[in-house]
Amino acid sequence: MIPTHVVVHQQSKVLELSYENGSIYRLPFELLRVLSPSAEVQGHGPGQETLQPGKRDVLIANLEPVGHYALKPSFSDGHDSGLYSWDYVYFLCKNQGQLWKEHLDKLAAAGLDRDMPMTKPGGSSGHSCGSH
After folding, report:
1. pLDDT tens digits along 56-112
2. Is the CA virtual torsion 101, 56, 13, 80 positive or negative?
3. For residue 106, how many C-alpha atoms fall within 13 Å in the half-sphere facing its CB?
4. C-beta of residue 99 within 8 angstroms of C-beta of residue 60
5. 92 near 32, Cβ under 8 Å?
6. What is the pTM of this model?
7. Rounded distance between C-alpha atoms, residue 44 and residue 115, angstroms
8. Residue whose C-alpha is closest to residue 58's, from 118, 102, 14
9. For residue 109, what are the domain limits?
10. What is the phi/psi pair of residue 67, to 5°?
11. Rg of the chain over CA atoms, in angstroms?
């Protein structure tokens, strides 16, 4: 489902999406960032997801349409490799409560939080597929 309007609200850090059926959704930037469809976040297969802590204050620096099928946000932390298909955006809209709870539960289980970035020895992200 393709939204009729997309508005970036920098102050409240939400992406507002309006649909033809009258539905309006507000997706927090943080949720969009931690659930990016990119290989950097999702990995290259099941079980390879990378938890994304420390993203509470992330902003969308730029938002570009990709054809008629997706959005490509560039986030203030430098992440810009996720292509958000309209179907994926709508999935996030419809399921954001459950998805958010799952993310917070995973952070807690890993002993991390929304304000603490994950660091690895040597400062490397550990990602090796060549994309950033």
Report:
1. 999 999 999 999 999 999 999 999 999 999 999 999 999 999 999 999 999 999 999
2. negative
3. 14
4. no
5. yes
6. 0.86
7. 26
8. 14
9. 5-120
10. 55, -140
11. 15
Phi-psi region of 62 (alpha: psi -120 to 50; beta: other; left: phi over 0): beta
Distance CA(130)–CA(40), nearest Å, equals 10
Split into its structural domains, the chain has a count of: 1
Identity of the residue numbered 85: S
Classify 91 as helix, strand or coil: helix
Tell me the torsion sign for CA atoms 18, 94, 67, 129.
positive
In a domain, 46, yes or no: yes
**Cα–Cα distance, 31 to 103 (Å, whole number):** 9
Whether 104 maps to a domain, the answer reads: yes
Q: Who contacts 61 (Cβ-Cβ below 8 Å, separation ≥6)?
A: 74, 75, 76
Kindly provide the b/e burial profile for residues 65-95, where b requires at least 16 CB atoms within 10 angstroms of the residue's own CB: eeeeebbebbbeeebbebbbeeebbbebbee
CB 6 within 8 A of CB 71: yes
